Amino acid sequence: MIRKIAARLMSRYGLRLLGLMLLNSNTAHAQTLLNVRENSYRAAGIGQIVCGDRGRQYVSTGSVLSDRLTVLTVAHFNIQRGRSYEVDVGKCEFRLIDKKGYAVFRSKFSILERGGGLDLLNVTRAVDWAVLRLAMPVPRSAIPLELGAKTTYYDPNIKYDLVGFAVEFDNFKSLFVSEHCDPTKESENSLVTLHNCWSGPGASGAPIVTFDGERLTLVAIHAATADDEKVGVQIAGRLRDVLDKVL
Description:
Elements: H1 2-13, E1 32-35, E2 46-53, E3 56-64, E4 70-73, E5 79-80, E6 85-86, E7 92-97, E8 103-107, E9 109-114, H2 118-121, E10 130-134, E11 146-147, E12 160-164, E13 176-181, E14 184-185, E15 192-195, E16 207-211, E17 216-226, E18 229-234, H3 237-246
Parallel strand pairs: 11-17
Antiparallel strand pairs: 1-13, 2-3, 2-7, 3-4, 4-10, 5-6, 7-8, 9-10, 12-13, 12-16, 14-15, 15-18, 16-17, 17-18
Protein name: Serine protease
Signal peptide: 1-30
Keywords: Signal
């Protein structure tokens, strides 16, 4: 609740740096929550998957990859798990949002491959990914995300950030970044990532990245929060095979 209130205050008053450092005794870093209006991430190819149906709008986060036509997001971007209902992809679009909150790019898309449907998502989050193909490439001004090493290893000395959209940030109009996350593997052979990044409604699909000032390297995506545990999907296994083939 404190995090949500702080995020709303930051969004409302245009504060760039959240004054609260979100501490966790199980992590090596202090997390900082930022509004990205003036942050270097604002040029990143990170946008929204927006689906509208039956008077409702559903928002997820998606990452543009190197060919500027492929977008990675969660499998449930158009699946309403509570109602076992799937929104037609024709009612969805990908958007890039500028720092003023306006959509500067919109494109329809098709699903190249989805990790799993509703039945599998109820079993494991390892399949909670979808690879999309845009109808048109994103502008050259958007910086695409690069894939990390095929073998996922989370270095405790490297800074990992989660970047995405959430209702707490100007009602999905501002990109946010949760800095200094500590992702770990669920187990040695699991494709599921556990992390302590901040997230909120709309952040499903948000990339966990490293940023060296020039290159954005994608290592995982946020999938869901379950029982106060943040889970994501590594860029490995079948997902990595699909991306290597497409890109």
